[in-house]
């Protein structure tokens, strides 16, 4: 009986372990979009964001976050403490330890992909 359901159980286990929803993609898009919006006008940035190279960076960051199990709760916390997704907006009173604990994976993923 178990033998018959083994492939299904294995697929369910793998999916449950790697399913982080859209949080990695949303975080990656926020990092790139807010960084670009801080640097230039929105019309130009919209065109740049559509470029395959920029999409590859976003996908790379999202992939790294996904492999680390980045969750919706972490995404929400990141968006809150960065005031919309720009890591340059971290609160001045936030310690290095707290920063790395809360958004270290974003720094690591961004560093790997840019």
Descriptive labels:
globular, disordered N terminus, 114 residues, mainly alpha
How would you characterize this protein structure?
This protein is mainly alpha-helical and 114 residues long. 75% of the residues lie in helices and 0% in strands. It contains 6 helices and no strands. It has helices spanning 2-18, 23-39, 42-49, 52-67, 72-81, 96-113. Helix 2 crosses helix 4, helix 2 packs parallel to helix 5 (72-81) and helix 4 (52-67) crosses helix 6. The longest helix has 18 residues, at 96-113. It starts with a helix and ends with a helix. 21% of the residues are buried.
Show the helix and strand layout.
Elements: H1 2-18, H2 23-39, H3 42-49, H4 52-67, H5 72-81, H6 96-113
Helix pairs in contact: 2-4, 2-5, 4-6
Biggest β-sheet strands, sense, barrel: none
Mean pLDDT: 83
The CA-CA distance between the termini, in Å, is: 49 Å
| SS-derived structural category | mainly alpha
Beta percentage is under 5%
Gyration radius over CA: 17 Å
Q: Give unreliable regions as ranges.
A: 1-18
Task: Give helix % range.
Answer: over 70%
- Along the chain, the helix and strand elements come as HHHHHH
